[in-house]
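Hi Y.,

Following your request, here is the sequence exactly as I used it, all 331 residues.
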Amino acid sequence: MGQEQVESSFQERELRWNAWCLSVFHRTYNSLGSRAVGAEEEGQVTETVMVSDVRENPVALRTVDRDSEGYQGLVKMLTKDFDSLPPISVRKKFCDYTNVDYLEIIDGLYRYQATKDAGLTTIKVEILDIDDDEVLAMQITCNGDCGYQKTTNYEYANHFKRILTRDISLTISQLAMKIHNWSPMRIKNLLMPNLTSSVNVLVFSGKITVANAYSLAKLPQSEQPNWIHRAQQMSPLDFVPLVTTHLRRISKNWKKDEEGERVPHDDPIVVRQGWDNVTHKSQGAYVRGDILVHKKKKHWRIKHPFLDISNKFEYAGDAMRVVEEWIDGGS
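Below is the corresponding structure, written out as tokens. Let me know if you'd prefer a different format.
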């Protein structure tokens, strides 16, 4: 056997292995709760349908790289051995605009496109009865690294955000239960690698939702403790916009040091609970009751109608803490 034949044989075995891995993902997911239409208790229903009856899902985990070596090899294999490809997962849909029934892809976009490019007119499908939330979860569950194309962390993260958009109240344990082959730690490392250890404890215990934790992780670790209480108490509908606004405000005050790390160029203003943002002498300032924290030249100062506080602070947050300690202490 020549070198080219050996390489071709190896590639075909690898593609068959990938196909088998994908079928394992299907069986794993289906055993955990997917529902095949008309399925018997001991098995699942697989049908062969016209390729023209199947349509792509407008929401997909990833796009198809038709120029990749793996994809080209799959198309070549299908022209020789169509039966080795596991069925794609679809669900029944109806187009109100054209009044036509069709099958929408749940998982199997790569195989569907390869079937079309191979010139085949039929494809094996497994028809499932699942809702939109289950579709999003299954698209992650059924796409492992053993497939024809590796899914990037960026693609995974975008898809997780789609799931969180549909249910902003999910805790990390609840999210992991939806994605059966993803542990809470794996989800945390993907979406929120920058969280401090104290915040991680609250996330894993379910006291902070994933949506709030995702926003919290965008803040510098030095600021995260100041936002913990709000992350626990506030709905993501209120907390996420608050963090986003804060990030926009402080982004102008950050620069990179000699090692390329982001460091505060000026005071990264911390919006502490109980303080209101005001304007004082055309500059930003913060007020709590009759106490004012304002910036004079390069330093922050505390102004009180009856007290003479001459301390100078590099950061507004430090001045606020002094005021809070003074108020709590009853001085």
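The chain has three domains: 3-145, 154-251, 276-329.

Thanks again,
Q.
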